[in-house]
Amino acid sequence: MKVLKFGGSSVAKAANIQKVVNIVKRGNEPQIVVVSALGGVTDMLIKAGMLAENGDELYKEVLHELEIKHLDAARELLPVTNQSGCLSMVKQYFNELEDICEGVYRLQELSLRTKDRIVSFGELLSSKIISAYMLSQHVAHQWIDSRKVIKTNSNFSFAGVDFSETNKLISDAIFSSKENLFLAPGFIASDVNNHTTTLGRGGSDYTAAIFAAAVNASSLEIWTDVTGMMTADPRWVANAKTIDSTSYQAAMELSHFGAKVIYPPTIQPVMQQNIPTYIKNTFAPDEKGTLIQELNSASSAAAGTEIITGISSINSLALLSLEGSGMVGIPGFSKRLFEALANEKVNVILITQSSSEHSICVAVNAADASKAKEAVDKTFEPEISNGKVEPLKIERELSIIALVGDKMKSHPGISGRMFGALGRNGINVRAIAQGSSERNISTVIAAADVKKAVNVLHEAFFESTTYKQLNIFIVGVGNVGSKLIAQLKQQQEFLLEHSNIQARITGIANSRKMLFVDNGNAINLNTWQQDLEKGDQMSLDKFVETVIDKNLRNAVFVDVTANGEVAKVYKQLLEKSISVVACNKIAASSAYDNYKSLKFTANEFNALYLFETNVGAGLPVISTLNDLRKSGDVVNKIQAVLSGTLNFVFNHYNGSVPFAEVVRQAQKEGYTEPDPRLDLGGTDVMRKILILAREAGEQMEMEDITNNGFLPASCFEGSVDDFYAEMLRQEPHFRALYDVAHSRNSKLKFVAQYEGGKASVGLQHIPADSDFYHLYGKDNIVLFYTQRYPVQPLVVKGAGAGADVTASGVFADIIRVAR
Ligand SMILES: NC(=O)C1=CN([C@@H]2O[C@H](COP(=O)(O)OP(=O)(O)OC[C@H]3O[C@@H](n4cnc5c(N)ncnc54)[C@H](OP(=O)(O)O)[C@@H]3O)[C@@H](O)[C@H]2O)C=CC1
Ligand SMILES: N[C@@H](CC=O)C(=O)O
Predict the structure, then answer these.
(1) Which parts of the sequence belong to the ACT domain (predicted)?
(2) Looking at 46-50, 178-182, 467-471, 661-665, which range is the least confident one?
(3) Which of 33, 56, 697, 787 is the most buried (most CB within 10 A)?
(4) Per-position b or e across 533-571, b if 16+ CB within 10 A of its CB
(5) Residue where a domain terminates, one of 416, 435, 462
(6) Is 801's C-beta closer than 6 angstroms to any atom of ligand 2?
């Protein structure tokens, strides 16, 4: 014999009830079918009762609406000739309900006992209507009044079952009948005085489990509107998947922690008798669903290779902390705390105590927090008044997120992975609990972070074979920024396929406009230019605020501007664990304290601050230097040509076209800074050697660098147009520089050097035997002389400027964020 339970959504309307009966008809062994009230009915019955209690005649309308709903369902299901009996049954039930609610209305009092009586009509009506429909379909069965066979105490609304009496009554009723099919209302029972009781919200699952245990069923099937228990709430996690198989214990943990497909007490009766329990979908009956069964080697193999079964959460919590030096080493404090809470019927969801015994922390429903504080402060009044204990501290707007899995036991590294993933995403853990069963690790976090946390953990534990989502915010979509977007667009599929990374651009901006997409979406990379034009007016503050408020996992802010204000927002973002990738050099070459503080902040908040493209564009200059230092090498000297623009200019200038024209060409090719005077004046190279010196461990400022510039001072007066005009006028100066070098068989190169705590930049004559002589186009070269490379330097050389190569370097930094 098996037991099937159909929930509210499965019997929400006539068409669904037909599906239910079809499933029942497929059964090839005796069955007990337990049904809930039609979807939404219990809430409406509660509402009617409460309206009546408040003296509000609107309760009549609610009852009328409910009556119509049930009459309509009966009319839709039954042929006209079979309707009258069922319709008059419905009317009779509603007459009774009206009488009860009128009593409540007159007395303006709604006891839990009366409330149970009112809500019991939901299951009575649904089961009677379904029974009538089954008869009309010639499905022979016996309707059983659950109130007659499930006996409870008188704890109305959450009654405790008397299993010995109930098991006997159920088996007598079932095994004395010659029927093979039984239909029973869920949720309802009765006490020793035959007063109707209920088993708690969601109690129909429990009813089914009680029947299953009483008849020692071959299986219990919980039919609902989802295909089994999921690895996480599918409304939050797009990649949530059905759990094929799990143990009773893990199912219980998951259901306690918010996986609402099964009412938590349901598991106990079936677990005791080892009855396999299936969660199935009424609307996709052929799908496998989830099997909950005893944990053994076979079931463990069936559960697959995942260590974690699922991730669930509970919201609307408060954390209560009792702290004080007076607690240390004195027995009885926790007993008094829990007694105070129990006396006020405050349910404790999670408990932690530091080993110093200086504090005990419990999580409770937020609604109970104030009464808990009142009770606890009263209990500890003497200790509070003499300063041994502090008044109970309440922190609100919290949630619990729990990792559940049978295979977590003795599997090292799970909590490390959990907290690492949360930490990298700036999710602060307020309290932690793990039972010695090692089946559940629960953490208390801010409610605002819970959706992000569920996604982060789902990604960390279930999506290694699917993908990791990267949420990218780009400020600056000019020369380099637009190439970056083009590269991201082109490589989207490659990233998914080869690196399991889903790179989504979630926000973009230029100096005038900004554009964001709603959570879950990405900016359309085919139409982003037009879409950005239609976006909101750019406000840097608003942009940053939105990035933070979106609170997305694996978020990265990409600065592709040359703007000082943009460079000032990094810290704010890093403090929220949002990584920063910058090709803008301003922050890394700003005051040393700021540079250091950004690096420190990134480290402290588990974010990355990456700026590889600040030197040598896409060349691995900074990463090479970092690798040398991380492995213990010491940098003695750096010699480099670091300006793509200047290398291009001096490689192309020979007096045949004016110097100014060659510079203009470099700008056209996309090698110069947005303001080319920074390149020609040496500032760009100063920034780069400064950044390299700092990365080599030197505490240095811009002012410490000597700039042996070659541009006449008059070139810096006025605008960029004036700059070009003045360079034209100064052509003889540039010609002379060239001629002298040429006459010495040398080339002109703008060289940067760092050694012994000093750095300089300037134009040099490079002879033919120099490493720098054969440096063509806009290439860069960096020579690292270190303890390990004292004579023959480590050389990094290649294209050192240009939108494509720079975008490619930024791209690589972005991917590093998805570590
Ligand atoms: N070119 C190269 O080879 C390399 C460049 N870089 C660095 O790349 C960065 C970008 O260079 P590039 O793309 O050539 O510059 P562009 O001038 O072409 O683009 C700059 C972008 O930043 C936007 N912007 C400027 N100010 C703001 C602001 N306050 N808020 C929002 N957006 C702003 C601009 O918007 P709008 O169009 O509205 O003005 C534009 O979209 C520079 O820092 C440069 O040093 C680094 C290595 C190599
Ligand atoms: N303007 C720079 C570009 C990269 O930083 C250069 O010319 O090297």
Answers:
(1) 403-477
(2) 467-471
(3) 33
(4) eebeebebeebbebbbebbbbbbbbbbbbbbeebbebbb
(5) 462
(6) yes
Mutate to test the pocket of ligand 1, among 475, 485, 510 (most ligand atoms within 8 A of CB): 510
Which of the following is catalytic: 151, 451, 483, 688?
A: 688
Residues 352 and 373 in one domain: yes
| Cα of 474 from ligand 1 centre, angstroms | 11
| Residue of 479, 648, 669, 684 to test ligand 1 pocket, by largest number of atoms within 8 Å of CB | 479
User: At which residue do the structure tokens 């939404």 appear?
Assistant: 40
By C-alpha distance, which of 165, 159, 186, 363 is closest to 262? 186
Same domain, 102 and 193: yes
Ligand nearest to the CA of 647: 2
Q: How far is the CA of 528 from the centre of ligand 2 (A)?
A: 26
Q: CB of 636 within 8 A of CB of 793?
A: no
448 in the same domain as 523: no
pLDDT tops 60 at residue 357: yes
Same domain as 478, residue 455 = no
Q: Is the CB of 672 under 6 A from ligand 2?
A: yes
Look at residue 119 and tell me if it is in a domain: yes
Residue recorded with tokens 């942009």:
543
Structure confidence at residue 341 (pLDDT): 96
Which residue from 310, 354, 350, 302 is spatially nearest to 328, judged by alpha carbons? 354
Which CATH number belongs to the domain containing residue 28 in this structure? 3.40.1160.10
Say how far apart CA 492 and CA 623 lie, in whole Å: 25
Q: The domain containing residue 478 runs over which residues?
A: 468-614
Ranking 416-420, 460-464, 730-734, 814-818 by mean pLDDT, the lowest is: 460-464
3-state secondary structure 429-485: CCEEEECCCCCEEEEEEEHHHHHHHHHHHHHHHHCCCCCEEEEEEEECCCHHHHHHH
219 lies in some domain = yes
CATH number at residue 347: 3.30.2130.10
- Looking from the CA of residue 778, the nearest atom of ligand 1 is 3
pLDDT digits (tens, 9 = 90+) for 390-441: 999 999 999 999 999 888 876 778 888 899 999 989 899 999 988 666 788 9
End-of-domain residue from the set 200, 225, 250: 225
- The pLDDT assigned to 518 comes to 86
* Co-location of 63 and 179 in the same domain: yes
Residue 257: per-residue pLDDT:
60
In the annotation, is 747 catalytic?
A: no
Q: Which tokens belong to 276?
A: 């396999």
Residue 580 lies in a domain: yes
Which residues fall within 8 angstroms of residue 633, CB to CB, at 6 or more apart?
786, 787, 788, 789
* Domain membership flag for residue 761: yes
pLDDT at residue 365, as a whole number: 94
Distance CA 498, CA 339 (A): 56
Average of pLDDT values for 370-399? 94
In angstroms, the CA 808 to CA 527 distance is: 21
Total structural domains within the chain: 4
Q: What average pLDDT does the segment 525-544 reach?
A: 98
- For residues 24 and 111, membership in a common domain is answered with yes
Mean pLDDT for the chain overall: 93
645 lines ligand 2 (CB under 6 A): yes
Q: Do 513 and 536 contact (CB within 8 A), yes or no?
A: yes
C-alpha 269: how far from its chain's center?
Answer: 35
What DSSP letter does each residue of 786-811 carry, written as one string? ESSSSSS-EEEEEE---HHHHHHHHH
Domain shared by 433 and 475, yes or no: no
**Per-residue pLDDT band at 201 (split at 50, 70, 90):** confident
More confident residue, 648 or 387: 648
E strand or H helix at 411, and its extent?
A: none
Assess whether 598 and 666 both reside in one domain: no
Ligand 1: residues with CB < 6 A are: 475-481, 509-512, 538, 540, 560-563, 565-566, 583-585, 613, 617, 644, 670-671, 673-674, 801-803, 806
